[in-house]
Request: fold
Amino acid sequence: MTYRALAPRKVIDRCTALLILWVVLPVLFGCAQRHYLRPRSEPVRPLARVVRVLGGKELQPSSRVMETLRRYGLLDSRRPDAQSILPALQEEYQREPTLEKCYALAELAYLGGIAAQRRHQTEQALDHYAAAVAYAYLYLFDPQFDLARNPYDPLFRQASDVYNLALEGAIRLYCPDGRLAIGNQNPIRIGARTIQVEFALRTSWPEAEIDHIEFVSDYELEGLSTRHHTYGLGVPLIVVRRSPTVSDPAERYYPPGLSYAATAFLRVQAFDGNVPTHCVLEVHDPLFSRFTRVGHQIVPLETDLSTPLAYFLDTPEFNERLNLATLGLLNPQRTQTLTGIFMVEPYHPDKIPVLLIHGLWSSPATWMEMFNDLRSFPEIREHYQFWFYQYPTGQPFWISAAQLREHLQQLRATLDPEHQSRALDYMVLVGHSMGGLVARMQTIDSQDRFWHLVSSRPIDELNADEQDREALEKLLFFQPNPSIRRVVTIGTPHRGSNAAHPYVRWLARRVIRLPQLLISRNEQLIFRNPGFFHNTDLLTITTSIDSLAPNSPVLSAILQAPKAPWVRYHNIVGLVPQEGLLASLTSESDGVVNFASAHLPDAESEITVSAHHLLVHQHPRTILEVRRILRENLWDYQQEQNGPTRLAGQQALSLPVAPGSLAPGSAGTPGPGGLHQPWFDTSDVERSLWPPAVAPPPAATPAPYPNRPNPEPALVH
Reply:
């Protein structure tokens, strides 16, 4: 075979087509890239609203502390200085311990730590921060103050802030490189005293995966609409992951540069007077537990799920994956190595998977708004794990669907070869735009529908090599995946899109290059079997744009194919508001897919959302509908797991805490599935603090079709 250089005219035509397509497709289908995080000039300090700054840098205690000092005659003509006042206040506290004095000691010690750190006196700063944490801990938990402690007093929240800020300051000084010596006893010399500090994990990931930590307070979120932050005790952290040396079957599904959310909490195990002598610095996983216990008190942890996610999204490794969205459209062959399923949180066999599938000229980044919001609901993050599917969107969607079938089979064989995890059998697929078609094709029985689109003769009569015949069978003959229970399609062109009109398809064919192996194999099949195929479109169609044409027979075959009886479909349709200049151009559509194409008659539920095609899957109404569907799916799962008798009286979800959970103060031992379990059973906590999260599912929400009857469009033939 000989190759000739492209004629100048063809080069010009391709360049022109590429330029036009670059302008047209992002408007029709694509998504924009963004940055998610930016460093702060200085960390956030919540006490700034009550602690005054004098002379540019000098700190003055809050008005409540000033009143306490004045009341006990500890102020003179000089400005209050922690170094000079703390000893006198400590003597006063020992004579008569009160909450006001305890808080004053904590705040003054914290301010003394800031002042010492500014003077680069590291040991003195660490001494002050440790004292601040200790006195704040006494304020919050000392039993002698139980009757006097008032959670409605603003001082209570300020004591929590002092605890969190002083603990963060101490960790920064003690671990300047961000390394935590998990499981070790670390003596800290503070003045003439020695404090034993033990590091312990309360997480779903092992110590071997921790590379270093970053502090959430050092960053400002800018690429996600909502920062999901809960208030309590502890220091929100970003744990930057490293690949462990031990073999883990799930390792192949973790992208490089991954980071986890965590919270550091210092538990004081023993005091000598008012001085702590033994502490445990616990690192908690907020995806696993939102609470800890101190004595008889249930303590909510301060958490931030959004900033660690944004930190990962801004890494060069993930940005490289995002940049492949365009390459995956224009040259699918060059991105095949990155095609597949990946995870951004630790795999858990007892959590139900939600697989998010993007659309044309897009990437998994398009799901981050939904992912970020869904994880903010405790019943979702504690019972679901989110996976993402990345694929080259330039190829026809049925090829991507065939590849996803294989990837799902490989994942199950890798992570659960004995099929012991029932949670994996309640998988939910969520697809946006073309991704909805890829998702739906995982749940239908092709029978001979797709084969009859190309030939009326038996496939056994096909003259083909075994490898080519097997590849064709995988594409045209398939059965539903038994692990998938629900499919949610969002803005999906079930009957094609008018945006894929002939001129756009002509442009796409000039710039999108399918893998040469795929093209040549299908051409060889046609050449070796003259007259065997009555329609070769399914074999010779060149781009995903062509595959979305309204007259595509594959779309009709998908709608007519029988679905698995155990699968439920849910549909979300975007409608651009009928107002403004573009109203006449987007009538009853989301700007790309019209309502008649997006409507799904066999869906168990269907709603319309007032949003454009590019944004419908990020709209709050859509996210809440997906949450409703996930809760409904969770109800079905728990009904099967627990039985109807128990569920009839069950009021809330509870975390799965195994027998033999960790004892107070222990360093942490792996539980079932390699998890590091929290040391107390949180089920009672969850039952008392959560609203009922598992209840009989509500009736499916009807589709609010504005001013029109529910349509039943005819199938495309």
Summary: The two ends are 40 Å apart (CA to CA). The CA atoms of residues 127 and 191 lie 7 Å apart. The chain has 23 helices and 21 strands. The longest helix spans residues 620-642.
